[in-house]
User: What shape does this take?
Amino acid sequence: MAGSEVRRALIALALIAAPAWAQQSSLADVQLRDPAKEAQAKALMATIRCVECQGQSVGDSDAAIAGSMRSVIRERIQAGETPDHVRAWLIERYGDYITYDPPLGAMTWPLWLAPVVLLIAGAAIARSSFRKKGR
Amino acid sequence: MKRALLWLPLLLFAGLFALVGFGLLKPANRTVRSALTDKPLPDFTLPALLPGKPGVAKNGYGGGQPRLLNVFASWCLPCKAEAPQLMRLKALGVPIDAVATNDTADGMRDFLATYGDPYQRIGDDKASKVQIALGSSGVPETFLIDGRGRIVMQHVGDIRADEVDGIVAAWRAAK
Assistant: This one.
């Protein structure tokens, strides 16, 4: 009887203490309260490269540094920063390599332009060969 | 003209083949470098990890004296391999500070007692926030901050014995 009361008191204490503890610890694996902000943070994490295990995003990786980056991303989004702003902050530190969504720049414009050029070239080739057949 | 054009696809293929083959034989360098090299140290403040050893903050740099900032942890194996080189740098007069990532006071005390203590300041970077703010992607990494408070060099990985002289020269040049 007394044992179960003690246990109940301990559980109650743990429930009171848990939120305070959760606030202090990192947000690596803790969702944000606001679902809209959590969705923004999740979407951003999927496009940020883990610098330790380089084929993965920080959202997918178990590496410690990826957890720290998830925490930094959640904290900044929670504080009201836009995902683009957080991405820019990370690029400032790690370069374009950190993002799977590279910005258009002097180094990356062929990446963005190549599909358009290839599509136009393909359309031109298709058009000319269909014309020949028509004759 | 037409006959020559006939060879174009084959040539393009050969070019692509050569490109892929070259990439396979010589894999790209996967070291992620901080983009902050040649830029001012970002703003940060870290509390002390051990009593009696001050923490690390941005305002401790740029006072005319270049310093090394070593991002490390007592749980990191290459950091143990690096320790003798840091002790040599200290003996040569190079001031060294540390950002201890994800560390505990007990672990740090053991580490310093076993491998020596080359550090003038040790900042407690619990959630690796300052490590990320510096653009560092692992431990150990060493930043050289010049007398004006700018990051002039980043050394990724543990400092080897044959790299100590180069780092001392860079430290002298950063004055």
Observations:
- The beta strands of chain B are 45-46, 56-57, 67-72, 96-101, 119-125, 141-145, 151-156.
- The CA atoms of residues 146 and 173 of chain B lie 9 Å apart.
- The longest strand of chain B covers residues 119-125.
- Chain B touches chain A through 18 residues (CB under 8 Å).
